[in-house]
Amino acid sequence: MIRDYEIAQDRDQLRACVLELQDFERGLEPRLPRGEEMVDQYLAFMLERCARTSGGVFVAEVDHTVAGFVAVLARVPPEEPDEDPTPYAYVSDLVVRSAYRRRGLGRALLEQAERFARGAGASLLRVGVLARNEDARRLYASMGFAPYTAQLIKPLR
To answer: Are 2 and 108 in contact (CB under 8 A)?
Structure first.
């Protein structure tokens, strides 16, 4: 079941989702902070961003447990003068806990994000993903997302 996030009942489980994602992504990119170092600050940041952009957070619930969530920013204004000036929607976070993967929850959460973005009047939905997160990249491609820009890095040591 996909439903709206409810802070009173879901906060601890949403926190667990962010912890799991951050530690997974840290395995892909070791420079990222550990989950416990950033989770509370990140949750506050994510929820504030959602509020500021008329966004929403939706959870996937399985047997009274939050198995994953999606956060979508409904109206993001472009920041750079050389960008398309049209505001867009942005999936800032999509997490499915490892014990619940391969059940279609990521797809269902992403479909909810699309419905929400369309309902808010968005004509474009963007998402960012770590280049090494191949499972996420496959999901996004299967849902019709295509590469738009690539940000490359070079460590300077």
So the answer is: yes
